[in-house]
Amino acid sequence: MIARIAQRNNILWFRFDGISFAIDFTIRETMRMILRSITKNSDLESKKSVKDLLIKPICSFLATQNNHFGQMRISYLRVVLFGLFLNITLTSLGQNIEVTVRGIKNDNGNLMIGLFNSEKTFTKKVFRAESPKAIKGKLKVIFKNVPAGDYAISVFHDENGNEKIDTNIVGMPKEGFGFSNDAMGTFGPPSFEKAKVVVPKVKSIVIKLKYF
């Protein structure tokens, strides 16, 4: 059982398994920097274990801190508990978001699925993108390791493969389209707020395509 004993200046004293040890705030901040550097990597694969992503880097760092930890034996379990005590949550590494697109009219072309992470970039600059082959009926895609935050998703059925949504003379879409929350705009796309989903609260999203 890990327990905080006292704080003196920039030193925190703890007791763990009957052994007292101290940690300087600079070590704490370095551990946070390690975590931040991991979360900035947008190419993390879900198959990578927490041990590889978080525990090993922290162990490597702590192994150099003998003056602070004395006879304390570093183990994976103890580092996990220590990280939790410092409010380093594993959810910061991101989670997978499953997107199901329904109502696909035919097998022509591809679906262009965009994940947007701000109101400013919504429908303009994607944060992540997927373009699976269209399958009549429905299909699923997964955005992997999405950091916590607010997002919106847009989808259109690129039937002719020109990588843009075709419109008629008055600007109405000629190809199927949809947004997260099945949000709709009056003249154009909905607002980011209407289409917004919150990660990690939301783990799966269903979007139904609309065709005119």
Q: Would you write up a description of this structure?
A:
Helices cover 22% and strands 33% of the residues. By secondary structure, the chain is of the alpha+beta class. It folds into 2 domains: 2-93, no CATH class; 95-208, Immunoglobulin-like (Sandwich), CATH 2.60.40. The model is unreliable at 41-48, 66-77 and 84-92 (pLDDT under 50).
Task: Please give the CATH class of the largest domain.
Answer: Mainly Beta
Secondary-structure-based class equals alpha+beta
Beta-strand percentage? 25-35%
Order of helices and strands: EEEHHHHEEEEEEHEE
Distance between the termini: 62 Å
The CATH architecture term of the largest domain is: Sandwich
CATH topology of the largest domain: Immunoglobulin-like
- Major sheet description: 5 strands, antiparallel
Question: Domains counted in the coordinates: how many?
Answer: 2
Helicity range of the residues? 10-25%
